[in-house]
Write a structure and sequence with these properties.
Chain A: Belongs to the binding-protein-dependent transport system permease family. LivHM subfamily. The complex is a heterodimer of chains A (307) and B (423). With 307 residues, chain A is mainly alpha-helical. Chain A has a single domain, classed as ABC transporter involved in vitamin B12 uptake, BtuC (Orthogonal Bundle), CATH 1.10.3470.10. The longest helix of chain A is centred in the N-terminal third of the chain and has 34 residues. In chain B, α6 packs antiparallel against α7 and α6 runs parallel beside α8. Classes of the chains: A mainly alpha (307), B mainly alpha (423). Chains A and B meet through α2, α3, α4, β1 and α9 of A and α1, β1, β2, α8 and α15 of B.
Chain lengths: 307, 423
């Protein structure tokens, strides 16, 4: 019984983290699916989302707003707007001019952008980590007596529900709306979509905006869950989310969701049963192994090399 | 058209405001567990508004500005000129390089200790950048975990000197060979991967090495690092005030001169200089050898190169291993110079800096890379008041280079004929 409780606790923690990874991973996978580049600066956009949310929460609380859902919704909207604008601007400044060049050039440009954004926030907000207020506390406890107590906090429930809403909205958007259909068309064949009168530049911008908005949601959720933000925290999270995207098969949206959940669970199991210090090693090793043995990921389509 | 332009410009200016005002305009301050929000001072806000206005004006008159920029004659008019014959150019280059090296040999005796120390660091970066240049510039493999091999070299020396008391001169080849071995072992499986996947795998590898160094406390001392790494000796002569090891003599006593701390600094600088020149020469040789040509061929067109009978794995692996070898070299010198190393020195940012040097200098070009290494290391020291903006400028420079001049400041030039475009 104790073991089962401990195991479920790790599972819940893993799924919580994993669902936020999935949110970030969607940004990577959508961009990769359409223009075939790794958006290295995506982790930074997520970090900016977290900072904006924290600024909005602090500002609203200082203004005397006390109704929690309103604060959270306004903060979420602010974070999404700022992050999306950032995503749009990054694509415009750093990626569009180099699109279609040799594969390494957009990647180096993206690394440059990532360093730039990290230091932009570092200079504006300082390098120390800043505490994120725990707005949602409390939760359910299972297990009794002096044994191990499994807890499911309200924060974790919030994360699950928010992620679920975002994922459903995204799936509906991609499968039903006009822009979503255009997105799918562009990811299948950019040139052909262009010929058929789809404004591909607009669709690519839209992809960056959607990915950035979801990253901002993850930024708010993970910021509150971890309880602090600092300018570097986008880097590792971005790398993990990229791992998730690759794990699920880069370019595939359901793959990113699945990959995020698997990675999150793998990580929390490692820190639960082995050692917390090595959980990053596990996720990077996982990344290397997948790329070596199954580069297409779990749900990805194999890429045919054309000569 | 004008109305459309105006709308677009207004939109861009608005976006600029959105992405800069919330982050720059408010300051979060942590006071204990409470976080307070303060507005930034008036000048910052004026700057943000000014930036928006500039973006607006630029987008509004974009075509005129771009047209104006194009009509300015190119500062380096050589781009349309035929390149010099290769042997003549090589001769000029080698004369220039010899001159620089001779100058560099005598230079440390006339300047302050601080600048010699800085110059040693520059030389370490030159070595690293030359090594990475083989991997990224010549072979076209984007390696984002290059710093891992640097760490292997540094930690090899530190650990061996701690446990076996090995000397610098013995550790130098061992560190380099061990780093090369790491390159070989890592390269063997991953080099089948496509360019951008390779970049991520090497990045992951670099992080794994750093995390291991950080957490394997019993061996590496974890975040506390390893100290007391010995200085190099000159034929058994030590540069300290007192001789530490049995059987050694001290430099100042042997030559009967007064002890001075500068001797050690200059000696280290000279070692670094010799090793950097050695690195440059070896890689220069490699570039002219069939394997060097094969690197470039594979970078330019993998399918064509393979159909001509080049083994993809062998060629890529040789580039990767040679790059790692020189990183190990640089790592050993670095450990000896600092006397203390910790995982802090081997973060991803370091890889990015070395990559930035290669990119700025012009991928594949040795002179360009050397000049870029000097510029990137020295400029922040000269402009100390701007030093906190160093990484910001780095990032922006990398993006701008890729957009405007992806071949770098001094690209490698080869004899080639350009076909005239038919009108």
């Amino acid at each position: 019984m104790q073991d089962l409780l401990y195991f479920s606790q790790q599972l819940i923690n893993g799924l919580t983290i994993g669902s936020t990874y999935a949110l970030i991973a969607i940004g990577y996978t959508m961009v990769y699916g359409i223009i075939g580049m790794i958006n290295f600066a995506h982790g930074e956009i997520y970090m900016i989302g977290a900072y904006t949310a924290l600024i909005a929460i602090t500002g609203l609380t200082a203004l005397g707003l006390a109704w929690l859902p309103l604060i959270l919704i306004v903060a979420l909207l602010c974070a999404m707007i700022v992050s999306s604008s950032m995503g749009w601007a990054v694509e415009r400044v750093a990626y569009r001019p180099v699109r279609g060049r040799h594969r390494l050039i957009p990647l180096i440009s993206a690394i440059g952008m990532s360093i730039f954004l990290q230091n932009y926030v570092h200079l504006a907000q300082g390098s120390r980590n800043i505490g994120f207020p725990a707005l949602i506390d409390g939760g359910f406890n299972f297990g009794s007596g002096d044994g191990f107590q499994m807890s499911l906090s309200y924060m974790q429930i919030t994360i699950f529900i928010t992620t679920l809403i975002c994922m459903t909205a995204l799936s509906l958007f991609i499968s039903r709306s006009r822009t979503g259909r255009a997105c799918r068309a562009v990811s299948q064949d950019l040139g052909m979509a262009n010929l058929l009168g789809i404004d591909t530049n607009r669709i690519i911008s839209a992809t960056f905006v959607i990915g950035a908005a979801l990253a901002a949601v993850a930024g708010l959720l993970l910021g509150m869950y971890y309880g602090s933000v600092d300018p570097l925290f986008g880097f590792i999270a971005g790398l993990k989310a990229f791992t998730a995207a690759v794990l699920g098969g880069i370019g595939s949206i359901p793959g990113a969701m699945l990959g995020g959940l698997i990675l999150g669970v793998a990580e929390s199991m490692t820190s639960g049963y082995l050692s917390g210090e090595y959980k990053d090693v596990i996720s990077f090793s996982l990344l290397i192994l997948i790329l070596l043995f199954k580069p297409t990921g779990l749900l990805g389509k194999p890429e045919v090399e054309k000569i | 058209m004008a109305a459309n332009n105006f709308r677009h410009a207004l939109f861009c200016a608005f976006i600029t405001l959105i992405i800069s005002y919330p982050i720059i305009g408010f300051n979060l301050e942590a006071q204990g567990i409470n976080v307070t929000l303060t507005g930034a001072d008036a000048t910052t806000i004026v700057m943000v508004l000014l930036a928006a206005v500039i973006v607006f004006l630029f987008q509004m008159f974009r075509e005129q500005i771009m047209g104006g920029l194009k009509s300015i004659p190119h500062p380096l008019p050589q781009s349309n000129k035929e390149p010099m014959a290769e042997n003549r150019r090589a001769k000029i280059e080698s004369w220039v390089l010899t001159g620089i090296v001779v100058l560099a040999l005598f230079w440390p005796f006339f300047v302050s200790r601080g600048s010699v120390d800085l110059a040693t660091l520059v030389l370490i970066y030159v070595m690293l950048a030359l090594g990475l240049n083989v991997v990224v510039g010549l072979a076209g493999l984007l390696d984002l975990g290059y710093v891992a091999f640097y760490a292997v070299g540094a930690y090899t020396f530190a650990l061996l000197s701690q446990y076996t008391g090995i000397s610098f001169w013995l550790a130098l080849p061992i560190g380099a060979l061990l780093a090369a071995l790491f390159g070989l072992v890592l390269g063997f499986p991953v080099l089948r991967l496509r360019g951008d996947y390779l970049a991520i795998v090497t990045l992951g590898f670099g992080e794994i090495i750093r995390i291991l160094l950080n957490n394997w406390t019993t061996l590496t001392g974890g975040p506390n690092g390893i100290g007391g790494i010995p200085d190099p000796t000159l034929f058994g002569m030590e540069f300290g005030r007192r001789v530490k090891e049995e059987g050694n003599t001290s430099f100042h006593e042997t030559f009967g001169i007064a002890y001075s701390g500068e001797h050690k600094v200059i000696f280290l600088y000279l070692i670094a200089l010799v090793l950097a020149v050695f690195t440059a020469l070896v890689i220069r040789r490699f570039m002219r050898m069939p394997v060097g040509r094969a690197w470039e061929a594979l970078r330019e067109d993998e399918i064509a190169a393979r159909s001509l009978g080049l083994s993809r794995t062998a060629v890529k692996l040789s580039a990767f291993t040679i790059g790692a070898f020189f990183a190990g070299f640089a790592g050993t010198v670095f450990a000896s110079k600092q006397g203390f190393i910790s995982p802090e020195s081997f973060v991803f940012l370091e890889s990015a800096i070395i990559l930035a040097i290669v990119v700025l200098g012009g991928m594949g070009s040795q002179i360009g890379v050397v000049l870029a290494a000097i510029a990137v290391t020295i400029l922040p020291e000269l402009a100390r008041e701007f030093s906190e903006y160093r990484m910001l400028i780095f990032g922006a420079a990398m993006v701008l280079m890729m957009v405007w001049r992806p071949q770098g400041l001094m690209p490698m030039r080869r004899i080639h004929i350009e076909l005239k475009r038919q009108e």
